[in-house]
Amino acid sequence: MISLSLVAVALFPFALAAPQPDAGVIHVPIVRRSQTDRVANLPKAMEQLRAKYGYQPTNGTYSKRGNTAAVPITDEQNDSSYSGVVSIGTPAQNFDLILDTGSSDLWVATSSCTSCDAINSCTSCASTEFTTSKSSSFQSSGTPLQINYGSGSVEGTISQDTVSFGGFTITQQELLAVSATTSGLLGGVLSGIMGLGFNTISALNTTPFWQALYSANQLSEPLFSFYLERYIDQSTMDTAPGGVLTLGGTNSSLYQGSIEYLSLASSPSYWLLNVNSLSVQGKTVSVGSSSLAAIDTGTTLIAAPTTVTASIWAQVPGSMALTGAYTGLYAFPCSTAVTVTMSFGGSTWTINPADMNLGSVPSSVSGTTTQMCAGGIFDIGTSVGSGAGVPTWIVGDTFLKNVYSVFRANPAAVGFAQLASGLGPSTGTSSPNPAKVSSSTATSTSGSSSSNPLAGAASQNTNIAISLTLLASVAACFTLLL
Fold first, then answer.
1. How do residues 270-284 score in pLDDT, each as one tens digit?
2. Residue 64 carries which DSSP code?
3. Catalytic: 100?
4. Which position among 296, 355, 379, 397 bears the catalytic label?
5. What global pTM score does this model have?
6. Which residue among the candidates 75, 79, 96, 100 is catalytic per the annotation?
7. Which terminus of the chain is more solvent-facing, meaning fewer CB atoms within 10 Å of its CB: N or C?
8. Is 233 a catalytic residue?
């Protein structure tokens, strides 16, 4: 097996789909962008996630969310994220923004951000930056704001403008017009983040775009739903269909059976559920007394408490805790298929073994000649605080790719359903657009091919999807900005 160096997969969206026949229900195709390097960036990704939710390392009327884990750009590209095309201004300027249920704020890099150009190594970044002077509806409050992340920070001005997404429009949506950023936050064609959490965790103390739509009765139902594609076992692709986000409803062609709704475990902030049970390799693992989990589309990995993570990997023969910069991650023999199931109080859901394999770890890191692969569940460390509403687990796309997920505002709940036949548990899909969503720019282009096989019955390519969106810590450690 050829060793992969790092986990770097950034996802980029299709152009917004036209409104569907059902009034108030919009299906937005999502495009995924992959990169070749992977495991080498895992240490940075872990630190970003910890910063987003206010953890310490194991060792040693419209909104923006102030600290979730998704202010990605450079680091974000090294992991994996799902984005959608968002239009801002009059006339509209289009941008690829990360879709993040782990945060509640909206921010976009502007043309005045010279540091963004330098970080992205481009002589002209106009296509990925918002030119405020070209928008007749742009209004700046003049109030500066700096948001600090685990990997850097962004600075800008609290502003308002017309924002459209998926055929819906809010005319005075608050956002942060970013004028400066440090390295590690932006990269590729990503321009910012659209938070899909609740207003209570907004760094700007405003209402998120989706919640504004709900309050204005623009949605047929008070919810939105995700189907996330999987390409972890396929050749590296520059861009590829990444799934579908449905605003104001669900898409019955993407799931089978009924949707099982679970009431939020705390008052609305993050989308919080309790992890009820867990098994690894068919053996039950105790989830401990603290099992509050944030369901986060902006994070690809699963982060668990220290003792639980150790128990999880103890069930996998030959697994080992990594050290140094990789502390918190575990590796296992690449020839092993790791099977994990999770329940949040209802049905038990199985995670595809491909999603548990992040790619091979260099022998210089593992310290063994056995081919070892990094695992999809890592030790997040120790919480900075405790109490209601502080998650001890972060459940990202490693799990969410295996279910159809629904985020409902009223009554507040998260729902899961079994994927439609052909979408799971198999990896990838035979159709590049299984939901048959129309889009003028829904294209897929092939990039370099990966030859690193994943563990499992058959040899597979290790194109990893670790969607740890860069995490933000604003003033306090519990809320994050992405």
1. 999 999 999 999 999
2. B
3. yes
4. 296
5. 0.77
6. 100
7. N
8. no
